[in-house]
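okkk here we go again. third time trying to get the zinc ion bound version out, last two times i messed up the smiles copy paste (missing a bracket lol). double checked this time i swear
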Amino acid sequence: MDAKTTRNGRGRLRRDLINPRDAYSREGFRLKGSGPWIEAGICPFHDDHKPSFRVNLETGRGRCMSCGWSGDLVAFVMQRHGLNFRQAAEHLGAWEDLSGFSPATVSTATSPRARQGGRP
Ligand SMILES: [Zn+2]
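finally!!
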């Protein structure tokens, strides 16, 4: 599972701001060795007893060798914490908010563009 959406009407994901090693470390994994693919630890998506979860330190992809879960960091955070795409990007410190940079010129009452951007 990949989170392919990289932008919506109010902001976008900045994948370049994500450091996979830091991000997975903050999720509680103890990452040893150098990549790209390294063993990260217990898979959070099934009842794991051995360290089945591998991550790619270059791309941020994760993969479980036991239950078969596979996805990128955004998908990982979305599923693990029950977040939507934007919340996951914010959790990763990689959300660029584009909604507030010209508030004076955007009227939410009359701008069709603003209404389009209102989808979650
Ligand atoms: Zn698993």
